[in-house]
Amino acid sequence: MSTPGKFRLNVAGILMDAHGRVLICERLGNAGAWQFPQGGVDDGETLEQALFRELQEEIGVDKTSYRVSAHKGPYRYAYDGGPIRGFDGKDQYFFLATYSGPEDAIRLDLPHPEFQAYQWISPSEFKVAWLPNMKKAMYKQVFEDLLDTTLA
């Protein structure tokens, strides 16, 4: 069933290393708020182009250091408390990618930082409590769909 309103097209990258761990990042100025790198799709961009740009802008990872193995979406969520910048929420596509770069190559000291920390964890270690309420159901579904993991 479709929800009326205006939803921004968005992508998120799930980088998985050779040990089966995924990269999560802690939002700048919001201790304990962990998520996958993500961002909006600009006019004229494909979903994959937006993914490549967002991972470069948010964590300094070049597209040559990972290979997309799966993607799924859109997953829709509405913002808590009403519209933000003219949008009621997001239609988000998630990309699972095998990361082949050095573990410590993730950079957060970028011109427009969005994260204050990062870590590599097993998918089963992810805590739904780290997310805002509006994203909880979506992340649970994404973990089932792309990581074969059920989050509590």
Question: In a nutshell, what does this entry contain?
Answer:
With 152 residues, this protein is α+β, with helices and mostly antiparallel strands.
Report on the architecture of this protein.
- By secondary structure, the protein is α+β, with helices and mostly antiparallel strands.
- It has one domain: Nucleoside Triphosphate Pyrophosphohydrolase (Alpha-Beta Complex).
- Helix content is 18%, strand content 34%.
- It has helices at 47-59, 133-147; strands spanning 7-16, 22-27, 34-35, 38-40, 66-78, 89-99, 115-121.
- It has 2 helices and 7 strands; from the N terminus they run ββββαβββα.
- The longest helix is centred in the C-terminal third of the chain and has 15 residues, at 133-147.
- The protein is globular, with a radius of gyration of 15 Å.
- A 4-stranded mixed beta sheet has the order 4-1-6-5. Strands 3-2-7 form a 3-stranded antiparallel beta sheet, with no helix packed on it.
- The mean pLDDT is 95.
Radius of gyration over all CA atoms, rounded: 15 Å
Order of helices and strands: EEEEHEEEH
Output the CATH topology.
Answer: Nucleoside Triphosphate Pyrophosphohydrolase
Classified by CATH, the class is Alpha Beta
Mean of residue pLDDT values: 95
Shape: globular
Secondary structure: elements and pairs:
Elements: E1 7-16, E2 22-27, E3 34-35, E4 38-40, H1 47-59, E5 66-78, E6 89-99, E7 115-121, H2 133-147
Parallel strand pairs: 1-6
Antiparallel strand pairs: 1-4, 2-3, 2-7, 5-6
